Amino acid sequence: MTKACGTRRNSFGFTLIELLVVIAIIAILAALLLPVLSQAQDRGYTARCLSNHKQMAAAWYMYKDDNAGKLVLNEPMGTNYPSWVQGNYGSSPNDQTNTALLQMGLLYPYLRSDGIYRCPADPTVHVRSYSMQGQMAPYFWGNPADPEAMNGMPGYPGMFAETQLKRLSPADTLVFVDEAPNSINDCFFGVFITRATWWDAPASWHSRGCNFCFADGHSEHWKWQDQRTLTAVSGASATSNIDLARLQASIGYQ
């Protein structure tokens, strides 16, 4: 008597339901981990940017010490006169990627790494992300041959020497700032002293905030308190904006 035999295979694959469960678990884990990874990356960018600021503040300080207390010049037009760095992204788009303009700056002998001039969170092709606040040795108002006679703002003389750092301690006097990509052009960050209007706009790429350094060499991260600051553009109204008020209080006249 012949016994009928059937072939039976053991399957080790996933059923459709099992596969969908695995995909769902992976999606949940990704949703949980991606924000954590993004936050970690942002903290890393912020730390590296703060380090850049400290090195730039140190270079600014060494230049002052090597030049009898005179502050490094801050020339807004980009290439007309000596300045801490050269270039104007607004009038000359090719300047945006030209590292030679960094090397032409008065601070480059103290700051010879091109990467220090750029924030790691900057999403643009710009070789420079930082600007110097406009009351620091502004070199285009008045007679360029007599910088002591020039004004950073009408009625508010610019500061050209260590002895002219006015009213605030060096620890409270702003020097360099992350400038917003839609605002950065020359190396000069303008802040109206009394007007509730943005002259230049700060960046907001560090946890909805911005990095700065000060005349004593330390750097800080500020988180913006006013939602409008996150989308600030040059010339925009900033009435009752606590962030602008804080900047105005850090440039030496409040």
Question: What does the model show?
Answer:
- The protein has 254 residues and is of the alpha+beta class.
- The protein has one domain (49-248).
- It is built from 3 helices and 7 strands; from the N terminus they run ααβββββββα.
- The strands form 2 sheets. A 5-stranded mixed sheet has the order 5-1-4-6-7, covered by helices on one side. The chain has a two-stranded antiparallel sheet with strand order 2-3.
- Residues 142-151 have low confidence and may be disordered.
Break the fold down into its secondary structure elements and pairings.
Blueprint lengths: L15 H51 L33 H4 L26 E4 L17 E3 L2 E2 L16 E5 L9 E2 L19 E6 L4 E5 L18 H7 L6
Parallel strand pairs: 1-5
Antiparallel strand pairs: 1-4, 2-3, 4-6, 6-7
Write a brief structural summary:
The chain is α+β, with helices and mostly antiparallel strands and 254 residues long. The protein is 24% helix and 11% strand. The protein is built from 3 helices and 7 strands.
Count of beta strands? 7
Q: What percentage of residues falls in helices of 4 or more residues? A: 10-25%
Low-confidence stretches: 142-151
Class derived from helix and strand content: alpha+beta
* Oligomer status: single chain
Query: Secondary-structure element sequence?
Result: HHEEEEEEEH
Mean pLDDT: 85
Q: How would you characterize the largest beta sheet? A: 5 strands, mixed
The global form is elongated
Strand order of the largest sheet: 5-1-4-6-7
Distance between the termini: 109 Å
Radius of gyration: 26 Å
What's the helix count?
3
How much beta, percentage-wise? Answer: 5-15%
Number of spatially distinct domains: 1
